Amino acid sequence: MLGPEFRGLSNATGVDAIRSDRDLMLWQQSVKSEILSPATLLKVINKMRLADDPDIRSEVKELAAKYKNYSERDLINFQLIRKLQDEYIKVGFKGRNVVVILCESENPLEAKEMAETLADIFREEQIKGDLLSIRAIQEFSTEQLTIYKKEWEDAEAELADYKKSYTRVNIGESISEAILEGISSEIDQTKLYMEDYADQRNFVATALMNSGIDTSKIRLSAELEGLEANLQGIARQKASLMEKYGRTDSKVLDVVGKYRRGIDSLSTHCEKTAADLFPGIDPALSEQVAEYLELSMKMDLAVQEQVVLKRTLNNLKNRMTKWPDYEIELGRLEQKAATKKDIYLKFNTQLLGSRINEDAFRKEAENRYKIIEPATLPFAPIYPDRFKIIALGCALGLL
Questions:
Q1: 132-162, pLDDT tens digit by residue?
Q2: Is 45 in contact with 6 (CB distance < 8 Å)?
Q3: Is the dihedral of CA 60, 65, 69, 72 positive or negative?
Q4: pLDDT of 134
């Protein structure tokens, strides 16, 4: 005769409302399939260590010879799942949203524990499933937040780089604004010198021609060419400094002094060159040749200085015309960085709120899926039914 069997009963609620009878039937089928699924039952087996039962191990030994491709553990789990589905666990429903889990076993405590364990696992899986959606949103939000943060950082870096350029331009333009007049004055002064040198040279050239000296034969010596090239370099240096500093700045004045000293030394070098070009001529004519050389060099240097100063002035004016573009671009980059920052901060606030909502959502899910009646421990076996057996025996005895 079979030993006594005991039932453990557990009730769990899972839905708030069912719209129609068809919805109710589909929901009940889904719940039953999930509770009796191998994945759920395997968790029960592991948690209750049912695989350690010596009886089930004995049964599996016979199957192991037949199914050699499976491990002993797999066969034990397969056998236990089949027994739980077919013999030990029943799933029913009470009303429209209450799940009833019925477990049978020869051990009443085991039946009670099985019902409670299965109810807990089912409830936790339902809560976990409901939380998956909000966690998926959070994972997407975290990735999106990283993107927004990177965009904000890139916008800030772009703005910082542009500000460096902007600062350089800003400083340069504010100085150039102050020195434009100085450079213009230097150009005007150089022009006056050039015209004066030209007039004086023409006067000396006429006197030389009247004395029978061909001015086309008056050439610069190698020494004078070197000196002229050196003075042209000093003039370019002066123009470069005037682009950055005021006309009366000490750096500019030092270069101007150096240039003037070079100009003053021309007469001595020109006298030597004149004596070399026309040896033995009248000293007065030799002095006029030297003066002609000096005035020619001064005029050429003034022309070159004019070119350099005008180029410097034009460069400054070109930079000044770009000033509004810098302002517009700076404003655009500042607005871009502010927008990216605002998006990041707002999204970060939303993500933080969703994490807070997850706790509230979990509490709501826990209330939605709750065990309303724990498993009960029966005081007497439900099988065999002794009253039916006695009644059946009396009936047979009357025959």
A1: 766 666 666 777 778 888 888 998 988 888 8
A2: no
A3: positive
A4: 65
- pTM of the shown model: 0.41
* CA angle 88–50–3, rounded 5-degree value: 50
Overall average pLDDT of the 356-372 stretch: 66
Stretch 107-132: mean pLDDT: 82
| Separation CA 358–CA 278 (nearest Å) | 106
Residue of 213, 374, 176 whose CA lies nearest to 287:
213
Q: What is the spatial distance between Cα 277 and Cα 227, in angstroms, rounded to a whole number?
A: 18
CA-nearest of 136, 114, 112, 116 to 124 is 116
Sign of CA dihedral 137, 142, 148, 152: positive
The pLDDT assigned to 5 comes to 41
Once rounded to an integer, what is the mean pLDDT over residues 218-236? 91
Torsion 305-310-316-322 (CA) sign:
negative
What sign for the dihedral angle of Cα 212, 216, 217, 223? positive
Angle in degrees, CA 304, 309, 313, rounded to 5: 150
User: Residue 384 pLDDT more than 70?
Assistant: no
For the chain, the three-class secondary structure string (H helix, E strand, C coil) is CCCCEEEEEEEEECCCCCCCHHHHHHHHHHHHHHHCCHHHHHHHHHHHCHHHCHHHHHHHHHHHHHCCCCCHHHHHHHHHHHHHHHHHEEEEEECCCEEEEEEEECCHHHHHHHHHHHHHHHHHHHHHHHHHHHHHHHHHHHHHHHHHHHHHHHHHHHHHHHHHHHHHHHHHHHHHHHHHHHHHHHHHHHHHHHHHHHHHHHHHHHHHHHCCCCHHHCCCCHHHHHHHHHHHHHHHHHHHHHCCCCCCCHHHHHHHHHHHHHHHCHHHHHHHHHHHHCCCCCHHHHHHHHHHHHHHHHHHHHHHHHHHHHHHHHHHHHHHHCHHHHHHHHHHHHHHHHHHHHHHHHHHHHHHHHHHHHHHHHHHHHHHCEEEECCCCCCCCCECCHHHHHHHHHHHHHC
Give CA–CA dist 328/259, Å, rounded: 42
Structure tokens at 125: 């899986």
| Mean pLDDT (the chain, rounded) | 79
Give the C-alpha separation, 359 to 361, whole Å.
Answer: 5
Q: What is the pLDDT of residues 180-204, one digit of tens each?
A: 788 888 899 999 999 999 999 999 9
